[in-house]
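CRAL-TRIO domain-containing protein, Hevea brasiliensis. Tokens?
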Amino acid sequence: MERTDDYQRHNCKSNEMVEEVEQTKIRLLRASVERQDPSSKEVDDLTLRRFLRARDLDIQKASLMFLKYLKWRQEFVPNSSISPSEVPNEIAQNKMFLQGTDKKGRPITVVLGRRHFQNKESLDEFKRFVVCALDKICARMPPGEEKFVVIGDLQGWGYANSDIRGYLASLSILQDYYPERLGKMFIVHAPYIFMAVWKIIYPFIDNNTRKKVSLFSPCEGWI
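Tokens:
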């Protein structure tokens, strides 16, 4: 019992130290980005903390990442949000659904791979759809929660659904502009033919994101 109490006290102190370090880093990051872009004053500490964590609390790297995000947001989402009316072709595929929360309270999103088809006319519409969806997911998060879960169901997926350009675009948006938002991604019912696509995509997934992705085939289980 004493060992358990000692461990809990040690763990509590460690958490307090980490929190103190993060708060100091957040203040320094805020001062840095506000000097370079006054609009960053409107951003809350939790957002800054996510960018810090994505760059291992390196203030300079986090500052560069955050300022890049602000510039992108101002240019790509000038009206602060993207309306479903701006992405009609993607919405019509009926491929993404919000499905409650997991035991940790994280919103769950289900994506049906067999319903996705490459938008050959405009990659921009697909990118806007990704941003629209991510913003909607984040808006559903309860107080105190910052992450979401994705279930990518590839049952029935075939070469007609393959869209490497779209996959890489959505990955870039997630990693560059929504850091520390993904809690877990489960890719289920992955057919053998998907592995050729996966081998192309995998090198572009950063190490932090790779740890959160689990890939399952119909017969073999986790890959």
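The chain has a mean pLDDT of 91.
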